[in-house]
C-alpha cells in the first residue's frame, strides 16, 4: 500500500470551523469533503475522537462527545 499524507486531504484549505458542525447544512457540507477524500483512515487516526471527546465531522463521520452519531440521530439536537 502506498502511504498517503494529510496533504492529500480533500478538505485542505477549507474553513476548519465547518468541521465543528454536528447537524444542518454545515455538517452536510463538511461530509461532502469527506465523501471525495482519499485519506479517511489517516484522518481518523489523527483525530481519534474517542480519546478527545471530539464534536464535529472527521473521517467521513459525525461525532458527538467522541462517539459516532448514528444516521437516525443526525437530526436530533
Verbal overview:
A three-stranded antiparallel beta sheet has the order 1-2-3. Strand 2 (61-64) and strand 3 form a beta hairpin. It is globular. It is an alpha+beta fold. The chain has a domain at 18-69. Helix content is 31%, strand content 12%.
Q: Main β-sheet, in a few words?
A: 3 strands, antiparallel
* Separate helix tally: 3
The shape is globular
CA radius of gyration is 12 Å
Low-confidence stretches: none
Average pLDDT, to the nearest integer? 86
Kindly estimate the percentage of residues that lie in beta strands according to DSSP: 5-15%
Q: Give the total of beta strands.
A: 3
Question: Strands across the major sheet, in which order?
Answer: 1-2-3
Q: Give the end-to-end Cα distance, rounded to a whole number of Å.
A: 40 Å
Q: What is the helix content? A: 25-40%
Topology pattern, helix = H, strand = E: HHHEEE
Blueprint of the fold:
Blueprint: H1 24-35, H2 40-47, H3 49-52, E1 56-58, E2 61-64, E3 67-68
Antiparallel strand pairs: 1-2, 2-3
Keywords:
globular, 77 residues, alpha+beta, 3 strands, 3-stranded antiparallel beta sheet
Short summary:
The protein is α+β, with helices and mostly antiparallel strands and 77 residues long.
